[in-house]
Design goal:
This protein is mostly beta strands and 158 residues long. It folds into two domains: 52 residues, no CATH class; 92 residues, Jelly Rolls, CATH 2.60.120. 15% of the residues lie in helices and 39% in strands. It contains two helices and nine strands. The strands form two sheets. Strands 1, 3, 6, 7 and 9 form a five-stranded antiparallel β-sheet that branches. It has a four-stranded antiparallel β-sheet with strand order 2-8-4-5, with no helix packed on it. The longest helix is centred in the N-terminal third of the chain and has 15 residues.
């Protein structure tokens, strides 16, 4: 095992490694030229990789909280690239004299229906944490032209 590990790591450096090449657990990691190639040091290499590439372990990235808003119908939240967002809160508000209703959807699948009283605002209760990545869109379909929705979210990956 020791020789196999050394063979995997001996020709790698940070300038030539392509992250998309790592497709299996225990495959090649990002060693530096100073790394001693022994089984005892393999754990150190893995911990160093985690410290650089997984600093939040699924927790919010500091200072990543944002708010998006939309009037009437459309996309409330969409992200691009490797960004992953977790929705914290959604608010529905109407400036009209009639109650406003809307459906909050993720990729066209309804998550929750929400209602706001005339000239009022209300928090939308989410049934579970809502995670949005570049393959998904949080959207709204509503019944009122006076409808405004706000969404607060933070990113856990970017």
């Amino acid at each position: 095992m020791r020789d196999e590990l050394r063979n995997l790591l001996k020709s790698q450096d940070l300038n030539t490694v392509n992250p998309s090449a790592f497709k299996q657990v225990g495959g090649v990691v990002f060693p530096d030229q100073e790394a001693a190639m022994s089984l005892a040091d393999f754990g150190t290499i893995v911990e160093a990789f985690r410290a650089v590439h997984l600093p939040a372990y699924g927790q919010a990235i500091p200072q990543s909280a944002k708010t998006s808003s939309i009037t009437n119908n459309g996309d409330l939240l969409s992200v691009s690239g490797n960004t992953v967002a977790v929705v914290q809160a959604i608010e529905i508000e109407t400036s009209g004299s009639d109650p406003a209703t809307c459906n909050v959807e993720l990729n066209g699948v309804m998550l929750v229906a929400a209602t706001a009283d005339p000239l009022g605002a209300a928090a939308v209760t989410l049934p579970y944490p809502v995670v949005v990545d570049s393959a998904g869109t949080l959207s709204v379909t509503g019944s009122s032209a006076d409808l405004t929705l706000k969404c607060t979210y933070y990113t856990i990956s970017q």
